[in-house]
Amino acid sequence: MTASRRGATGLSGVLVVDKPAGMTSHDVVAAVRRSTGERRIGHAGTLDPAATGVLVVLIGPATRLAPYLTAAEKSYLARIAFGTQTATDDAEGEPVRLAPVPDRLGEDAYAESVLEGLIGSHEQLPPVYSAIKRDGVTAYRAARAGAPLTLDPRSIEVIDARLVGIVREPDICWDASFTVSKGTYLRSIARDLGHSLETVAHLGALRRTASGSLTLADAHPLDRVIAEGADLADLFIDPVHALGLPVRIVSAEEATRVSHGVSLPLAAEAAGSIHPGAPVSVADSQHLHAIYALSADGGVLHPMSVIAGGVPR
């Protein structure tokens, strides 16, 4: 099938965009789609419109990598603003409740102790204004219509939480860095912190600083991405680096076998370092060819996702 019939450009790669405020993640994808002419574009991990920072955009056959990149832990700089609760749990929503802020929240040592106490596993209730769907209905659409959905708590993990600084005027805000598991809402963390500290709070600002192994150092401003149009291949990141998985390097002969979904022996030097069922990048020096998984007995790699033509490195 020709590229013109598919509406494809031949582009294939992982692109890190520094998402500007005021755009949805879908808006960014649509902008890249228009500028490149490539229809097969997606992203790995939604950012709210008000948030900025690392948005991983997948182009062409590289969209096959979405399940592996979306699952990555993510890091943020967040401002938690105390004293006001909003309908959306962030600064975009209308205030729905005001409450006094205890003086102790302005103390660095106290804030550091509270944030450290967040580290670990939790059951978190997502915001009613979220992109979660239930029975085909999107939560934020239902909330806007005045009939918010009843959402179920989800298991999340706060891997790290540290105080960056405290803003004390006009209202107390904590600037903090977080590293969290997939599906964690920083808006919910802010909301729940307010309740637990005998006040209320919302997420005042959010910037994603990393998604898995990809950081702001890998990111490009959206304006530059759009200006490059279909000539943006030089902005792509090595997909093997992006995935951050163990790597099985293959010969040209093995790469041909991989293209047909043939299983591979695990390299002797990797034995014992990869758990059964764990994903592995299969690549040579030029392309990422597939994602394989280690067999239950730990001796053979079986295909999970084979990428026709590979993703250039």
Radius of gyration in whole Å, from Cα? 22 Å
- Using the alpha-carbon principal axes, give the shape: globular
**Order of secondary-structure elements:** HEHEEHEEEHEEEHEEHEEEHHEHEEEE
Helix/strand structural class: alpha+beta
Number of helices: 9
Detail the poorly predicted runs: 1-7
State the total count of DSSP E strands. Answer: 19
Helix content: 10-25%
For the record, what CATH class of the largest domain applies? Alpha Beta
Fill in the CATH topology of the largest domain. Answer: Pseudouridine synthase
How does this structure look, described?
- This protein has three domains: 13-72 and 213-240, Pseudouridine synthase; 74-204, Pseudouridine synthase (2-Layer Sandwich), CATH 3.30.2350; 245-312, Archaeosine Trna-guanine Transglycosylase, Chain: A, domain 4 (Roll), CATH 2.30.130.10.
- It is built from nine helices and 19 strands.
- Residues 1-7 have low confidence and may be disordered.
- It is globular, with a radius of gyration of 22 Å.
- Strands 1, 2, 3, 4, 7, 10, 11, 12, 13 and 14 form a ten-stranded mixed beta sheet that branches. The protein has a five-stranded mixed beta sheet with strand order 15-17-18-19-16.
- It is α+β, with helices and mostly antiparallel strands.
Summary keywords:
ten-stranded mixed β-sheet; 35% strand; Pseudouridine synthase; five-stranded mixed β-sheet; 3 domains; globular; alpha+beta; 313 residues; Archaeosine Trna-guanine Transglycosylase, Chain: A, domain 4
A few lines on this structure:
The chain has 313 residues and is an alpha+beta fold.
